[in-house]
Each structure stands twice: as structure tokens, then as C-alpha cells.
Amino acid sequence: MRNKVKEFREKANMTQEQLAKKLGVSRQTIISIEADRYNPSLILAFKIASAFDRLIEDVFDFSEVKGEIEHE
């Protein structure tokens, strides 16, 4: 699942460490999310979106997930 975490974080002039601390996760978690190597839980995705005062759909691209559901 693609995301815009890095883009929103940089626009907010926030470091990975600052975002991680705000969300209660490790910096490594933020690194992995930004690199599309880790999909956060729904709760963490909501917290990330809320940290930027955005909707989850603004930060995360669910089109791949929707496509998988439609093919089942």
C-alpha cells in the first residue's frame, strides 16, 4: 500500500523521530512505513492521518486493496 507519510511529514517540518514520538512508535517503524515496507494497523494509520490533520485516504492509497477485494 502506497502512502504519503514522508510528504506530509516534510511539509509539517517534522523529523522521523518527532513523528515517531508523537505516535508512540519507533523511528524504524516510520522509516519502514515511508519506504512502503510495512503497512500500519488501521489504528496507527488513523493516528498518522490525524497527526497531519488529514483523512486516512489523503495519506494512504487503498486502490491496491480495493482491487484485491474486487477480484475475489
TrEMBL record:
GO terms for molecular function: DNA binding. Pfam families: HTH_3. Keywords: DNA-binding. InterPro entries: Cro/C1-type_HTH, Lambda_DNA-bd_dom_sf. Residues 5-59 form the HTH cro/C1-type domain. This is DNA-binding protein. The lineage of its organism: Bacteria, Bacillati, Bacillota, Clostridia, Peptostreptococcales.
